Amino acid sequence: MPRKRGKRWTASGYDRGLKRKVHLGTFDTRREAAEREAEHALSTRPTGRETIDSFAGRWVRDYPRPRLSSNTSNAERIKPLMRDLGGVRLTELSRPIARAWAMKHRWALPAARAMYADAMNDGLVDVNPFANLRLPGSEGRKRIVALTEVELRGLADQALKALAG
Q: How many domains, in total, are found in the chain?
C-alpha cells in the first residue's frame, strides 16, 4: 500500500529472495505508486509449471526432516496426494479442492501441509491451500468405555478355557 512521504508517495513490495520488504520507488501521485506495487506483485508471483507429483516426488529428499522416521512417514503419507492430484500444478491447487481431499485423507493432511509450507518458503507458491482448514477434530478416546473388573475376569476365564480345551 503506497505511503505518503512529504509531498510524494513511496511504493514498497516483498522480495521473496531477501525475505523482506523492499523500496520500489518514490512517485508524484498515489496512483503511480499503487501501479508500481501492482506491477511488482504480478512480476514476483510464482508461475511455475511444477506439478504436485513432481514436487512431492523430490520433497522428502530435498527437504529432509531431522529424523529418519519422519521422512519415511512423510513419504508414505504423501502418496495419496500424488495419486489423486498429481497432475495439478502446485500453483493451481485451490483451497476447496485441498479441503475436499483433506476430508478424505485426514491422516495425510500434516504431510501435505508441510510439503506446501516448504514450497511456499521457496517461493514456488503464494499460499498453502492446506493451512488453516479448520477441519473438525477427532474425538480421540472420548467414547471408549473400559471393561469393568467383572468383565475382565470373565474374559480371562474364557481365554484360559480356550487354552486348556
A: 2
